[in-house]
Each structure stands twice: as C-alpha cells, then as structure tokens.
Amino acid sequence: MTAIENSLSAASEPHGFDPGGVARWHPQSIAAVPGQTEIALIGADDVCPVIPGIDLWDSWPLAHEDGRTVVHGGRQYWFFLSAPIFPDPGQRHDHARIRLASLGEDGWRDHGNAMPDGFSPGTREWAGSAVLHDDGASVSLLFTAAGRRGGPPSFEQRLFVARGVLGVDGPGQWSSVEELVRADDARYTIAAEASGKPGLIKAFRDPAWFFDPATGQRHVLFTGSAGWSDHDYNGVVGIATLRGTEWVLGDPLVEAVGVNNELERAHVVVRGGRYYLFWSTQTRTFAPESVKGPNGLYAMVAESLSGPWRPVNGSGLVAGNPAAEPTQGYSWWVTGEDEVWSFIDHWGMQGRSFEAQPELLRAQFGGTPAPVFRLVFAGDSVTIAA
To answer: Residue 123 phi/psi, 5° resolution?
Structure first.
C-alpha cells in the first residue's frame, strides 16, 4: 500500500504570512522568438475530433510516480476535461466532467466519464493529474471539485483525490474520494466566489503530482491566489507535501502579485539536475500595469524544489501562440518524455473578432488535442525542438 492510499486530511491552520521568501515572477519584457519559443500555426488538418459530439480541453496522462507516461497493454491513458458541444464553447466550464480516453497504435478509444455520476463532490470536475503508484496497481486521480454537489454552480474550488486501481481497461474502480488540503486564507485565498469574470476569479485548483528524486518526498503543486494580497492580479503556484499520512500546505513557490492572476496547471519536471516549474497563462490575465505575454507555456528553473527560482529564457516564456493566431491553443502539459500536450482553442481567426462575427465562437473552436511538440532543455534555456 502506498502512502497516498492512507487517510488524507487537511492539516494547516491560518497564520500570518510574510511573502518575502517567495520567488517573484516579474518579467521586464516578454517576446516570443520564431523557431524557438513560438508555436507553429494550427491548420484545418490539425482539428481532428477524438469523441464525436464532445469538446475536450485540459488533458493529463496517467503517469508513473517519476513522471514517465504509463504504457499499459500498448496504450497510454489520458484524462481530459469534457462537455457536450454547446453553441458557445464558454458554456463548457459549467458542465465539465473528466473523460478518460486511451491512445494506441489504432488511435483513440473513448472510455467514457472517468468517475461515476454522483461520485465527485462538486457540480463540475476541473483539471488535475493522475499517478500510478510504484506498486504497479494503485492509482490516484487528483482533481478540482468546482462548486458543491447538489448546490448551484459557483467558482468554489477544492482539491480532491480519488483512489482506484489499474485494470485491463485502464484506471478505474474508484473506491473513495477525499479532500487533500484546504486553503488557509493567509498564504492561499479561499476560492469560494459565487460568480466572476473569466480570468479574474480566485484560484485553488489544478493539483499536480510531483515526486522529488532528491528527497524522496511526494508533493502536490496547484494554482492559487495570494492570501496576503487583495490585488485583482495575484496568482501564485502553491505546494502541499505528504508528511506521514497527511498533506500539509507549504509556502508558495512562485508569486505574481501585480503581474498575473492565473498561473494555471503548474507542474514540475527534473532534467539534468535542474527543476523546471511550468504553468500556462493568457494575455488577458496579465495586470493592466504589467508587461504582457502571449497565451503560452511559462516556466521558472532552480537547482532544487525550494529554489531559488529564476525565469527560464530570461522572461519565463517557453512556448507561446504565434502573434497571427494568439488564441489557437491553450493549457500546455509537459510529459515525462518532454512532449507538450495542449488543446486547440480558437484557431484560424485570421484577425476576425467575435463581436463582428459571433458565429466564430463555435465555428473556430477546436475542442480537441493540439499537435504535440517537444522541448529541448539546456540549463536555464528551454526551447521548442525543431
């Protein structure tokens, strides 16, 4: 039995917090470099639906504890956020369920909703991660519960883990679901808004598993909002650590107060003895007074999980949408094989606007995996492989 299979509890009490020791992301300029940090244009041939009638977006693979993607029976198992196709794709966030699909030599297979109806404690299921433990059988699905089951839709966010096993048809047989940790309202804002504007809601979501090879400790990274700041743009990358049988909140790894509101889907990979902390963000979530970057994948680098952290490539930008199509993709995830997965957002806009042509909201929304690309790691530099 693995440690995460034991009883998990919220184990932090609110306390005063001085953020002076938290690494700050405060770029002076951000610019994509063609051929190095600018993602290739997405075309019509790339928009290939995986499941008819279903939009898919944020994705993550079933991975080993060390980050390698699991191959089971010749297949990879991928979790996606999913929803029925709506006239306005923005409606998908109010109906999101985690969907399981597998990829093999014969292409994609749909395995339906990952968790049974009524199992999740929220009204919707938002992004997370999934790990096959070292016993080769037990699986933990970490995810965000948005809202509360039986209640009205809201932007309340809580972190949960479902425990299951790896069977012939992939991960499943979820036996229980338990809350991981709770925001302390000192380091991390309690995200419980009833309503809000996209890009401006507060965050406590996106739990991402990380096993530190240097210490042997198990951690969960997550997207949060600074509890010590009332700035509208106060995104942080948070962390919790498994100590015995309890997950314990730690101080944020990175903060972007006054710079950006959403450091989404944060996750860590280790390459060449360095730790690379990745996240996704969008132009619209940069503060008005801050420099702005493209919708893209960003990162900090350090020699250990405790830092000190410094921006990759000088600015933090690793891979951004091209200027010609600034919304073509989003929600990037770096696998243990250095592959980068994301989804096709609004592609092929060619400078057109939704205000002038509202039909483009549906017509140009991909709702399917984007072309996969690879990264090249070289010290503090991380670029897109040619």
So the answer is: -85, -20
Count Cβ atoms below 10 Å from residue 150 Cβ, excluding itself.
Answer: 8
Joined together, the tokens standing for residue 77 give: 């198992």
Task: Check whether 359 is labelled as a binding-site residue.
Answer: no
Query: Residue 192: how many CB atoms within 10 A of its CB?
Result: 15
Residue 262 assigned as binding residue: yes
Of the candidate CATH numbers 3.90.550.10, 3.40.640.10, 2.60.260.20, 2.115.10.20, the domain formed by 3-9+25-350+364-384 belongs to 2.115.10.20
* Angle, CA 330 vertex, CA 326 and CA 333 arms, to 5°: 140
Confirm or deny that 264 is annotated as ligand binding. Answer: yes
Three-state SS for 32?
coil
Q: What is the CA radius of gyration of the chain?
A: 19
pLDDT-based confidence at residue 14 (cuts at 50, 70, 90) = very low
User: What pLDDT score was predicted for residue 16?
Assistant: 72
Question: Looking at the whole model, is its pTM more than 0.85?
Answer: yes
Q: Assess whether the previous peptide bond of 308 is cis (omega < 30° from 0).
A: yes
- DSSP structural state of residue 72: B
Which residue is associated with the tokens 């953020």?
19
Looking from the CA of 37 toward its CB, the CA atoms found within 13 Å total 23
